[in-house]
Amino acid sequence: MTAYSLRGLRLAVLGGDDRELVYIPVLREKGAEVRTVGLPVEKREGIIPCATIREAVRGADVIVLPMPGVDPAGNIRAKFVKEPLPLRDEDLQEVPAGTLMLVGVARGSLKDLASRRGLRLVEIAERDDVAIYNSIPSAEGALQMAMEGTDFTIHGSRALVLGFGRTGMTLARMLAALGARTTVAARRRADLARIYEMGLTPVTFPELPRVLPHMDLIFNTVPSLILDRRLLLKTNQRAYIIDLASAPGGVDFEVAAELGIKAVLAPGLPGKVAPRTAGEILARVLPEIIAEEVPWPPNGQRPR
Ligand code: NAP
Question: pTM, whole model, 2 decimals?
Fold first, then answer.
């Protein structure tokens, strides 16, 4: 048994996009039988496209949902199907309680469904390793947006990154590498020290009114309202604000529009700008996560 062998496991991959097409063959190589629904995959040994969710989840040890999970109407995100792919209680009737369900981020409706069915729901986007790997395509996507949305170079521009977590740190590093004069706002002393160590300009949040008038590019990674009316009134009216934080983001977009400041919410960048890399990230982490969450039984034999 290799560290991340999936031998003997049956996985149901429901919906998804190009990322699933990248990682499914890897899960198969690790020994899993993969049943899919809503994906353009050819039937072959160990990979079985199914017509319905009910069929795909029958006997599954793990149900894998796409990173964005379900939409507000409860439909699984499924790029390749025209009809909605709803995830309903009745589809999961034959799934035993305690079955592992993996998703990037779960909406309340999905959490409720998992709890009603007694499923073990694990949100993987918040794991440090996944978040750090995903910060690379996210930061590149933000830079791509900045390049496309402005008439100046990133080099020499005055860039502000709000937040110095997994995404903020990667983005700040990339901006600096491109030659942006990079300021980073953080609240922890250790983060402010690290920003300084990286040769960037640290600021605290109370200091923002002083720096905002001078910024050309502003990237928010803080998942709370940061750029409210008071701070937007201080912001350079020609700045371009790119908000990476999960919806509703950290910017008062109505006020930004009122003030004529260009501001956009930029969700799901890895899947949009680098689906192959985002699929490879999942191919790397999913076997580890599944092997951790579904341990081998003491007799070393999985039940099929
Ligand atoms: P993270 O590692 O938790 O970093 C969040 C940062 O925000 C930390 O520096 C944290 O500071 C700071 N912060 C949180 N609440 C704050 C507040 N009230 N005031 C000031 N600072 C605050 O998260 P992450 O992985 O970088 O992700 C950041 C956001 O981006 C999340 O919403 C995530 O879902 C989203 N995201 C979006 C994309 C995309 O494609 N758009 C991709 C990846 C992630 P402390 O450490 O002091 O708490």
Answer: 0.94
